[in-house]
Amino acid sequence: MLIVFVLLFVLIWFRRSQVPSIHMYLINLPRSKDRLNNFTKYYDKMKTKKPPMTIVEAVDGNAMKDTKLFKKWPGLTDKHTGYKGIQLSTVKCLELATKQSPVLDWAIICEDDAELPDNIDFYKIIETYHDSKIIYLDSRNAKGHGVVPMCCTCCVMYHKSVFADMIKELHPNTSTHIAKHKPTTGLDTLFDWYISWLIKHRLNIPCSSHPIVPNGRFKSTVS
After folding, report:
1. What pLDDT is recorded for position 78?
2. In the chain, N or C terminus with fewer CB closer than 10 Å?
3. Is 20 among the domain residues?
């Protein structure tokens, strides 16, 4: 019996002592080299442990505005091509992260106008919000455990347990919500609002907000 307790203690200690595996995905259009250079500058200045980073070519909403997918996107018009692009870019990042699972524990998805503070510690943030599976880091949001911001996604952390559901529900071709409810207004499927709705009402994902990453140095490309 003593041996069993010892083994259980060792197992619990081992699990708690493991450092989570984190990977960062940076959404960037090839033509936006100024944004890429600016982000990289802040990434290089980080004094804490840097997660490895993959630059992901963004889905160009303007280039896809006449495609069948964009034209049939419920509730959104040509004015929302930028929102559609960033939503599909997020799906693209999560699909890449899925390929690294189960080794990968967390995916950090950054928009290229995010400016990482040099003291940001992603590992400590995970410890602080240990019960959350999505953590917003955009500085424009309110702070707190259980806070689900309605907008502002320049830097968001996703736990591997939510990858599949987020991929499915963020893509208009596979989303159960979009297919069943056939939304008629932009806010029903507009990226920032839609993702928070999914977290709260569709997927019931534990979420928190730790507003530490500023942005806004560049003119918004989301229309």
Report:
1. 80
2. N
3. no
Answer whether residue 125 is part of any domain: yes
State the residue range of the domain holding 162. Answer: 41-213
What is the rounded CA–CA span in Å between residue 141 and residue 137?
8
The one-character DSSP state at 161 is: G
What does the DSSP assignment read for 111-143?
ETT----TT--HHHHHHHTTT-SEEEEETTSPP
* pLDDT single digits (tens) 156-215: 999 999 999 999 999 989 988 776 666 555 556 778 888 998 999 889 999 999 999 999
Residue 171 inside a domain? The answer is yes
* CATH number of the domain enclosing 186: 3.90.550
Q: What is the pLDDT of residues 56-114, one digit of tens each?
A: 999 999 999 999 998 888 777 788 899 999 999 999 999 999 998 778 999 999 999 99
Per-residue pLDDT band for 11 (boundaries 50, 70, 90) equals very low
Assess if residue 3 is contained within a domain. no
Q: How would you list the strands of the sheet with 155-159, edge to edge?
A: 53-57, 22-28, 106-111, 155-159, 134-138, 207-213, 144-145
Strands, DSSP E only, in the chain? 22-28, 53-57, 106-111, 134-138, 144-145, 155-159, 207-213
Asked whether the beta carbons of 213 and 117 are under 8 A apart, the reply is yes
Helix (H) or strand (E) holding 193: helix 191-197
Q: How many domains is the chain partitioned into structurally?
A: 1
